[in-house]
Design brief:
heterodimer, A: 97 residues, mainly alpha, B: 196 residues, alpha/beta, Rossmann fold, 10 helices, 53% helix, 14% strand
């Protein structure tokens, strides 16, 4: 026996043909936005060279990190801690001069 | 595009597909006409409020929805108590709208909750899928980008994924199964987007 799916909101008025045109604009805008974000994302991924990728894989293989995400997060944090205090100290020194 | 995940990790966007929040109606239409593959085609994730699950059960599609949850296309979200309060206010707005025939605001809680979810900045939604006129107008007044399942069918037709005959067949199947797409509406859609 075929399963019967009960209709939704049988007593409510549904959208009109003119609404569909507006809906299409929403979908097309959403897809266009995601396409741009994806393209930008792809370029960011390409920016990681093969040698860097090997280092990332090695860190995961040696169980230093569990995933690429963790390697990136820890590396950025380490770089931030290593460089920003120096930059901030230099800026403070220059201001004092 | 690098995005921060809910757990604070970092990942790259790996899809060109959209993120949406759906009310029950558009998902039921997709199930009625057997076109859930179009949802997969255009959406990476579709969020639904947890409260909609009971409604899906009432509509006899519990297993189908569970399958979509299991594959990860659908993701349920709980609302905070503040959000539930906001949803109650929105449900009252829908119940008081001149285009609705259902004046009991409790009946409109699921679509109101969907609107609250769609407003969540962290979900970064491209659209809220809803097809009842009153709820659509309230969502638009809230500044939400509204779309319906019919537009998904039409988009698929414009993209060459479906023929206009397949769109007509899908809409007629939904109509036959009780969804209130009128015959005039279906023909208007087919003429407008199929050129016949």
């Amino acid at each position: 026996m075929r399963k019967r799916i009960l209709p939704h909101e049988p007593e409510e008025e549904l959208l009109r043909a003119s609404d569909v045109a507006q809906d299409l604009t929403v979908l097309e805008r959403g897809l266009a936005r995601r396409r741009i974000e994806y393209e930008v994302g792809k370029r960011l991924q390409v920016a990681i060279s093969a040698s860097t990728k090997r280092l990332i894989s090695e860190l995961i293989a040696q169980k230093v990190c569990r995933s690429e995400e963790e390697v990136i997060a820890r590396a950025v944090r380490a770089f931030y801690v290593a460089t920003l205090p120096v930059i901030q100290e230099e800026a403070a020194f220059q201001t004092a001069e | 595009m690098i995005k921060t995940s809910g757990k604070g990790g970092v990942f790259y966007q790996t899809s060109e597909k959209m993120v949406a929040v759906a009310n029950t109606g558009p998902l039921i239409s997709a199930l009625q006409c057997g076109r859930t593959e179009l949802l997969r085609h255009y959406f990476a994730t579709i969020y639904i409020p947890q409260s909609e699950l009971a409604e899906f059960e009432r509509h006899n599609v519990k297993d189908e929805i569970q399958a979509l949850l299991d594959e990860g296309l659908l993701v349920t979200q709980d609302l905070t108590s503040d959000e539930q309060e906001t949803a109650q206010g929105i449900a009252k707005q829908i119940a008081g709208h001149p285009l609705t025939k259902v004046r009991d605001y409790q009946h409109h809680i699921p679509e109101a909750e969907a609107m609250v979810l769609a407003s969540r900045e962290e979900l970064d939604c491209d659209a809220i899928l809803v097809e009842e006129l009153a709820a659509r107008e309230v969502a638009q007044a809230l500044g939400l980008p509204v779309a319906g399942f019919v537009a998904v069918l039409v988009k698929a037709c414009l993209d060459g994924v479906l023929t206009i005959e397949e769109v007509r067949k899908a809409l007629k199947t939904c109509q036959r199964k009780g969804t209130r797409y009128s015959s005039t509406f279906i023909e208007e859609i087919c003429q407008r987007y199929g050129g016949d």
